[in-house]
Specification:
about 110 residues; homotetramer; mainly alpha; Csp_YhjQ (chains A, B, C, D); Substrate Binding Domain Of Dnak, Chain:A, Domain 2
Amino acid sequence: MNPMKMDMQACIDACLDCYKTCLSSASHHCLEAGGPHTEPAHFRLMLACAEMCRASAHLMLLGTDAHRHSCAACAEICAACADDCERVGDMDACVAACRHCADECRKMAA
Amino acid sequence: MNPMKMDMQACIDACLDCYKTCLSSASHHCLEAGGPHTEPAHFRLMLACAEMCRASAHLMLLGTDAHRHSCAACAEICAACADDCERVGDMDACVAACRHCADECRKMAA
Amino acid sequence: MNPMKMDMQACIDACLDCYKTCLSSASHHCLEAGGPHTEPAHFRLMLACAEMCRASAHLMLLGTDAHRHSCAACAEICAACADDCERVGDMDACVAACRHCADECRKMAA
Amino acid sequence: MNPMKMDMQACIDACLDCYKTCLSSASHHCLEAGGPHTEPAHFRLMLACAEMCRASAHLMLLGTDAHRHSCAACAEICAACADDCERVGDMDACVAACRHCADECRKMAA
């Protein structure tokens, strides 16, 4: 497997990890905590980030060049979600997963 | 409902229509016709376009500003899919759905 | 187009309509209203219903017999979501979309 | 973490692994090999299996009891996909991922 393909595999893993972390954190931690955690703009962004990560992984698994566009979008959305999770606080796992996914997606979008 | 919201509704409809057209065309017309219709690069792009349209509609339904990024990606991928369907030929419904979705997504990404 | 195919088209439409209604109601009406609308069990079921409807439509668009299984699952989940939306109250659009989708999916699962 | 939750985590992992294996095998191995690998009924079932696995993982990540229904459907579709991959041949990774996912889903559906 060549270096490009190892990068893509790492990005697929980062996207699916971020998808799982954001979706389960929203549905468990955020819904149970309430307050700022279910503030509409924050919660919507969590779900949007989960969906975009899932779609980016899908395009990379398909193996089409179109992944450059989905990875570019995913990098932006993950960065925004990481910032918002930091603002809300007590969301360390999401912040870490989003930052890592944003980094990996940025590389694949280049 | 204000003009912005009517634009978004039109874009959601365009995305879901393009999703349905690309996925069912790939799974019926392309698989049954074979030849250039199942050429890997073409078929993968059809499936990638379907997925990206589905994800863009999802982010707009969620109602988050993050849809700007997914719509920008979707516009690029739909335009590429339309071009490739024209090249392969006998894919008029996909070409039309992709061109329309690209136009609507470009407006929402602005 | 034969009667079977018209039934399937109606079921695809019902699934995508229920998907859109549940997802946007959860992300707009429920998150904005709070209280019982963001009670974890209720909100999770709304998101689960949206996902199952989306997947059922996908399998029917692909045109595989496997849709019988996804439609059976979708009928059960839509019925449960309709009941829960009635319990919470002020969710008439979701109740109607879920009941209709459950009916259409039950026919396709038979 | 109690035993039930460890079972669910194992099932989520099995579903996402089967999703990745079926989608990338269809888009790479099957499209490149052609012949029986792009026979419509086989290829559609591969894509249907990928989608159902993805949806089942999603419902378990959400943490709702509705996963019982999606896992029941997923077990049936994975078993059918494993059988069809054995019939076509040269699909060992898919057969293994589908059989494992069917087993895990059957436990979660009970």
